[in-house]
Each structure stands twice: as C-alpha cells, then as structure tokens.
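Ticket #4471: structure output looks truncated?

Reporter: J.K.
Steps to reproduce: submitted the chain below (196 residues) through the standard prediction queue, then opened the result file.
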Amino acid sequence: GQDLKEFQEAPGSIRDRLEQTYHPNIRLIRALEKPVIAAVNGPCAGAGLSLAAACDIRIAADAATFVPGFIGIGLIPDSGGSWFIHRLLGFARAFEWMTSNRKLTAAEAHAWGLVSEVVEGDGLPARAAELAGFYAGLPTRGVGLTKRLFEHAYDASLEEQLALEAELQEEATGTADFAEGVQAFLEKRPPRFSGS
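Returned output as attached by the reporter:
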C-alpha cells in the first residue's frame, strides 16, 4: 500500500499525485499484451491491493493478507481499485469488503476468487517463475490478443465483441504459431510455439 507519510510530507493535490505516479502504472499493466502476474507475499493493502487487482493473474503465499485499507483512514479506493475489485468480486461483495475494511487471509482471498492459487511462502517465487515460463511457452501473440478481447468485453455489446473477435482472429491466423499449432495437431505432437 501507499506510504501514509506521503500525505503529510507531499503537499499538493492527491488527484495530481495519483495521475502522475499510480495511474500510469495501472494503465501500462492493462495495455501490455502479455499476462502480468502478481505474486503476493505479505500484506497487500490500499493501492498495493489495487495494483495486484490490475494484474491478470494473482497468486499468494499462504501467509499473505489482503485488506482494502482505504476506508480505515477515511478514504475511498483509488488506483483502479473500485473498477478491478468490482469486476473480480461482483458489486455486493466488493462494496461490503471495501467499506468494512475486513482483512482476508490468503485462503479467504482464494475462496472469493481474488487470487487463483495459494502456495507455501517459500515456494512463491518458484511458482511465479513457473507460471511466467508457462505463459512464455504459449503462442504469445494469441495470449496478448486474448487479453485485448477480455479487456474490451467489459463495456462491449455482443455485436461489438463479435466484430473484435473476427478482426483479431484474422490477425491470429496470420501468425507462425497458428501454422505450427495446426501442423502439430495434424501430426499428433505437442506444438513448439515461437511467439511469432
């Protein structure tokens, strides 16, 4: 989360500080056409929670905790927290959690769908690296285009989503990974994707 001393030591508009420091990082995570993995190993609070929620995949060490933090000091969610948490948990659960400031254990965060996996603390770096390696071995262009589709789906009508799927599928069929995937399927062997 944010260093609360920042509020006392840095005069000026919080709106400007958010726009200049936090928001660019959130926008870059969402615009990156690669999966971004948050590996949470300890307390995840406030803007740190918003940052983790902005990622595509969240895994946690068994000792990690998650707390909104904002309402506990009289603030509201920022850094995209209201947008991401609402979409991850649904309106009712997100609102209740954000306004109650309840601390969740890693197991509770997993049960709620906030994180996809909980691992023993010492195993978190290795598991995060394993996940990164897994995604790097996939047809990376297809993964990136899929992320773009899901990003667009939040506000799209069915017709708009169908049109974007058709457009991006046209792009995907032009990749070397598509050709390799089809050839591997026909030859009944695992594909060797190159990311091109």
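Triage note (M.O.): checked the attachment and the full token line is present. The beta strands are 37-40, 43-45, 57-61, 65-67, 104-105, 117-119.
Status: closed, working as intended.
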